[in-house]
């Protein structure tokens, strides 16, 4: 799909949380806190313009029309690092259902190695938000998107903190129905496929080494 929608969330508060996450002196707890705060901003922006449904209500004074999300997205954290996003995303969209995908890159080849999939069978008509702070080569995100498309998802949003241009290109050329919401697109990948300047290993920085 040429011309994939990429929404960069560059609000000053988002930039401040991202700075905390990038700083190598930020400890695990503060990293998780900044990721949670930033997730709130990313999900808020990702849902701007989402279709709404009218809800008739009564205020203490009179009847009026209210509003709710027409179709709350399925939230899909990619383990491990996406776990640090799901609680806050779910707080923003409490009526959402949640699926899980587990994939870990092989440390020598950087290829994604899947180990978990727990998703509804039929995703037709349901928007899906994939939560993973890092989009590096794009291999892990593409694996996840392929699981979703195989279940008939046709409206997928990748919600990420940092992306490499290589990962953005990989999503764009995949032809899958995906858009990207991200706090920053960095310079690129180093020789072991880490994002530079990046923030290191987002799973390790929340939970310790695996
Ligand atoms: O775009 P890619 O090249 O696939 O890299 C991105 C993936 O790498 C990280 O996970 P990792 O494999 O380190 O697993 P973890 O979350 O368990 O640490 C990250 O959370 C993404 O899932
Ligand atoms: O920079 C990177 C690349 C992949 N996964 C991470 O957690 N960080
Ligand atoms: Mg990791």
Automatic annotation (TrEMBL):
Coiled coil: none annotated. Pathway: Pyrimidine metabolism; UMP biosynthesis via salvage pathway; UMP from uracil: step 1/1. Its EC number is 2.4.2.9. It holds the Pfam family UPRTase. This is Uracil phosphoribosyltransferase. It is an enzyme of class 2 (transferase). One of its GO terms (cellular component) is cytoplasm. The lineage of its organism: Bacteria, Bacillati, Actinomycetota, Actinomycetes, Mycobacteriales. It catalyses: UMP + diphosphate = 5-phospho-alpha-D-ribose 1-diphosphate + uracil. Residues 9-208 form the Phosphoribosyltransferase domain. InterPro entries: PRTase-like, PRTase_dom, UPRT, UPRTase/APRTase. Catalyzes the conversion of uracil and 5-phospho-alpha-D-ribose 1-diphosphate (PRPP) to UMP and diphosphate. Keywords: Allosteric enzyme, Glycosyltransferase, GTP-binding, Nucleotide-binding, Transferase. GO terms for molecular function: GTP binding; uracil phosphoribosyltransferase activity. Its cofactor is Mg(2+). Belongs to the UPRTase family. It comes from Gordonia mangrovi. GO terms for biological process: UMP salvage; uracil salvage. SUPFAM superfamilies: PRTase-like.
């Amino acid at each position: 799909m040429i011309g994939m929608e990429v929404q960069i969330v560059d609000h000053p508060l988002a930039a401040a949380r991202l700075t905390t996450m990038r700083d190598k002196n930020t400890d695990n707890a503060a990293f998780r806190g900044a990721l949670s705060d930033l997730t709130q901003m990313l999900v808020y922006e990702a849902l701007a313009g989402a279709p709404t449904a009218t809800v008739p209500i009564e205020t203490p004074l009179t009847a009026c029309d209210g509003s709710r999300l027409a179709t709350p997205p399925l939230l899909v954290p990619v383990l491990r690092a996406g776990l640090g996003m799901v609680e806050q995303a779910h707080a923003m969209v409490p009526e959402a259902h949640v699926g899980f995908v587990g994939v870990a890159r092989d440390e020598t080849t950087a290829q994604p190695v899947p180990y978990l999939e727990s998703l509804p069978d039929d995703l037709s008509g349901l928007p899906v938000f994939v939560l993973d702070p890092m989009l590096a080569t794009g291999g892990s995100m593409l694996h996840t998107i392929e699981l979703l498309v195989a279940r008939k998802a046709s409206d997928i949003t990748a919600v990420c903190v940092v992306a490499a241009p290589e990962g953005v290109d990989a999503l764009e050329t995949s032809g899958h129905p995906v858009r990207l919401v991200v706090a920053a697109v960095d310079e690129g990948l180093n020789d072991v496929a880490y994002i530079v300047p990046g923030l290191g290993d987002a799973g390790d920085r929340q939970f310790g080494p695996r």
